[in-house]
Write a sequence for this structure.
């Protein structure tokens, strides 16, 4: 940021330059900083849930391990890979806009959206599995209250809840509450992200972007990466911690 | 001081550039949006005041003769919710801040004009939902929504009110985001960080709290609503949840929110004290950095709301200590304002009366906060009228006075008209007297043990009733004092003397353009060559106006 000096030299005015900015550089800087500030807000928003997760994990470690072991680690891992690849295609889209390759931009944006939709689809399958196993917490769905079947010792039915010593069904419910709150909020952000990508794709299609004007792609990219990073934290916290205790279930 | 060229009154200003309802409701001009906020906030302030009057009337007598306890619960809850979320938090930032920050740093608008308008609509949607909840049956949890009462036992409109506050929070986040980006990227050439008026610094610090704190209360209220809806048990001890977690999350925002309310007020007062003393502020950087220090420390003290809520005594000691440290930057400000007054050419215009009132009342409010930050005394004073009096000294005596002072000070710039000075001073005095009469008896009541949130008290305690009568009498005087400006400010819009561009003869950038300003604030982007509050050196005495700059005596 130029210290206290909005650059004043005259550019021929770009059609996308809004009236209250001096030049495109100032406009891009403002937009980018705005998104960063917004992401800080988002971190605090998710932070409340991370705090609740930490607190209850310390309070009820056995229940959290049992509940975590019931999650489908394969689907979770696939989804993690899907999102990491989508971050790569997004980064490529930003780069190709900066260097003015419109075709590559469009392809990369479409790929990013397909990967995002894939993630949501897999998440939907996981949610449906939980629904089948009666693991939707509380009366979130009033006709389907939380009532998982607890496996007896020796029973290996994967649809039943395998409790390790010290875990109670009620505390498992707390885990699932946090699981649905965090992944649900994350999925909501993915859906919003897909909406943003649609707008960006249309703009790219119409040739709005150029090396002089690529801020919207860059800013949307920041958002997309942020949503990915949230998942990078959610996956180990929800799926992986305590996996090694599986055998004791 | 180098003289700025003040443009001749242009034919077009932001008020007459366009006409019609649409030109207001779809405006992207920060000045018009500030006026939209001004109207909405005044409305909510009026509603909140009605609840306050009802509370004071009920407490006039020891018996519950005006309302039942359940009605009273709703009355104080709704007073708190309306005043905190819909008046105090947006008050100065969304009106004066919105109007002035771009002008003070020489920008044409905030960085994101559309987001600025969006924030007003979000505020209105949140407000409408909250008003709906109040009309449908109200809410009785106290403005703090403590669980498990709010999640399990209350039979009032908790979800609707929570939704209103949740939505309203985003307007605050967007305002903060807009201010931060504007201050970083939109400063005029030469407007370095340390040439910015302290009003801007205060709003920068406020914005940091808005973007860091508000999302936490948003998710907290969302969790309360979901828990109430689906009985999930995240805060419900019966299901393994922890109700104290709610208090931690709630106060993590709501204590810093106090600084959202008072930091902008401090920014206004810094302007008033320096400009009406016609002196550069004493210790500019200390005042600027103390705003940031308050914002940072404000995030580390929330636990002092949990001294009697099962928090560990060691955590209590740390939070108590940290709460005391907030007094340091606050005291820096008070001392620096006082030092600025020293040998200044003070003029006692209405804004300055409010500014001086702020210093006194904020000091009382702050010092009584020390009583509450001490572990031992807090056990005695917690949940008594002492707490009520303490935070009203900060919020009414602090924020409201500064808001009124700022509104008078910038009224010529906002409206293009002067308010009647005599009425202004008169009402400032009435407000000051009424305020003190309302809330100083409450310190005594609290010390004697009167709990907050009760609508009755023992009839045999005559001294309690005497104090309550005094308090209600003061509230009536305060009410009159607040009605007078409403009338004469409205009157001045039509009949007030036409304001010149720089009626107070001040160096601030916002005064170096027409009153009211043109839509883009300045005809050409200003180039800043001076610090804030740089009053003219002696050879330029004539431009300072009717007050001569006093030279410090040679020693």
């Amino acid at each position: 940021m130029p210290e206290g000096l909005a650059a004043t030299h005259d550019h021929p005015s770009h059609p996308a330059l809004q009236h209250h900015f001096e030049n495109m550089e100032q406009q891009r800087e403002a937009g980018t900083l705005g998104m960063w500030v917004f992401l800080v807000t988002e971190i605090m928003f998710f932070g409340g849930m991370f705090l609740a997760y930490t607190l209850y994990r310390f309070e009820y470690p056995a229940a959290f391990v049992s509940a975590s072991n019931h999650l489908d680690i394969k689907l979770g891992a696939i989804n993690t890979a899907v999102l990491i690849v989508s971050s790569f295609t997004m980064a490529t889209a930003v780069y190709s806009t900066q260097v003015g390759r419109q075709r590559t931009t469009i392809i990369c944006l479409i790929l990013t959206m397909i990967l995002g939709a894939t993630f949501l689809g897999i998440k939907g399958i996981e949610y449906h599995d939980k629904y089948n196993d009666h693991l939707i917490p509380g009366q979130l769905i009033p006709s389907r209250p939380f009532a998982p079947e607890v496996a007896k010792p020796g029973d290996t039915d994967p649809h039943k809840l395998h409790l390790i010593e010290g875990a109670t069904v009620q505390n498992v419910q707390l885990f699932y509450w946090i699981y649905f709150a965090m992944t649900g909020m994350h999925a909501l952000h993915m859906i919003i992200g897909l909406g943003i990508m649609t707008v960006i794709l249309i703009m790219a299609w119409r040739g709005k972007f150029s090396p002089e004007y690529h801020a919207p792609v860059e800013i949307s990219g920041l958002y997309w990466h942020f949503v990915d990073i949230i998942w990078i934290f959610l996956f180990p916290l929800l799926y992986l911690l305590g996996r090694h205790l599986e055998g004791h279930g | 001081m180098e003289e700025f060229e003040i443009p001749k009154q242009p034919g077009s200003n932001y008020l007459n550039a366009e006409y019609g309802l649409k030109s207001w409701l779809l405006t992207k001009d920060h000045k018009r949006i500030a006026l939209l906020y001004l109207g909405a906030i005044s409305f909510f302030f009026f509603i909140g005041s009605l609840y306050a009057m009802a509370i004071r009337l009920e407490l006039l007598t020891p018996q519950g003769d005006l309302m039942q306890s359940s009605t009273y619960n709703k009355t104080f809850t709704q007073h708190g919710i309306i005043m905190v979320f819909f008046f105090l938090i947006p008050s100065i930032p969304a009106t004066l801040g919105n109007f002035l920050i771009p002008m003070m740093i020489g920008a044409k608008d905030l960085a994101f004009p559309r987001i600025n308008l969006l924030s007003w609509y979000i505020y209105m949607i949140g407000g409408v939902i909250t008003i709906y909840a109040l009309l449908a049956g109200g809410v009785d949890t106290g403005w703090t929504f403590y669980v498990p009462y709010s999640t399990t036992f209350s039979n009032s409109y908790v979800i609707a009110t929570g939704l209103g506050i949740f939505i309203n929070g985003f307007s605050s986040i967007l305002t903060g985001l807009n201010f931060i980006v504007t201050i970083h990227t939109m400063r005029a050439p030469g407007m370095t960080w340390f040439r910015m008026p302290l009003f801007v610094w205060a709003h920068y610090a406020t914005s940091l709290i808005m973007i860091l704190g508000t999302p936490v209360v948003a998710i907290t209220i969302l969790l309360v609503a979901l828990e109430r809806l689906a009985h999930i048990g995240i805060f419900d001890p019966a299901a393994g949840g922890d109700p104290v977690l709610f208090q931690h999350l709630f106060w993590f925002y709501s204590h810093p929110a106090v600084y959202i309310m008072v930091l902008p007020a401090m920014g206004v007062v810094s302007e008033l004290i320096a400009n009406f003393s016609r002196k550069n502020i004493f210790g500019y950087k200390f005042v600027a950095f103390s705003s940031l220090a308050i914002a940072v420390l404000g995030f580390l003290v929330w636990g002092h709301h949990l001294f009697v809520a099962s928090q560990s005594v060691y955590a209590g000691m740390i939070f108590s200590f940290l709460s005391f440290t907030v007094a340091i930057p606050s005291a820096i400000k008070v001392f620096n304002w006082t030092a600025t007054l020293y040998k200044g050419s003070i003029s006692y215009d209405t804004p300055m009366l409010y500014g001086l009132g702020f210093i006194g009342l904020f000091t009382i409010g702050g010092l009584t906060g020390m009583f509450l930050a001490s572990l031992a005394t807090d056990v005695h004073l917690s949940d008594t009228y002492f707490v009520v009096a303490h935070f009203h000294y900060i919020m009414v005596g602090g924020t409201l006075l500064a808001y009124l002072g700022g509104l008078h000070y910038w009224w010529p710039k906002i409206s293009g008209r002067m308010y009647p000075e005599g009425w202004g001073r008169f009402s400032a005095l009435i407000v000051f007297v009424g305020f003190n009469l309302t809330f100083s008896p409450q310190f005594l009541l609290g010390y004697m043990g009167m709990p907050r949130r009760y609508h009755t008290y023992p009839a045999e305690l005559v001294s309690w009733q005497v104090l309550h009568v005094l308090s209600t009498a003061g509230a009536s005087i305060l009410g009159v004092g607040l009605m007078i400006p409403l009338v004469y400010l409205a009157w001045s819009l039509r009949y007030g003397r036409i304001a010149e561009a720089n009626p107070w003869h001040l160096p601030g950038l916002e005064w170096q353009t027409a009153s009211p300003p043109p839509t883009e604030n300045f005809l050409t982007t200003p180039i800043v060559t001076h610090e804030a509050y740089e009053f003219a050196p002696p050879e330029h005495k004539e431009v300072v106006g009717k007050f001569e700059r006093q030279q410090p005596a040679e020693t």
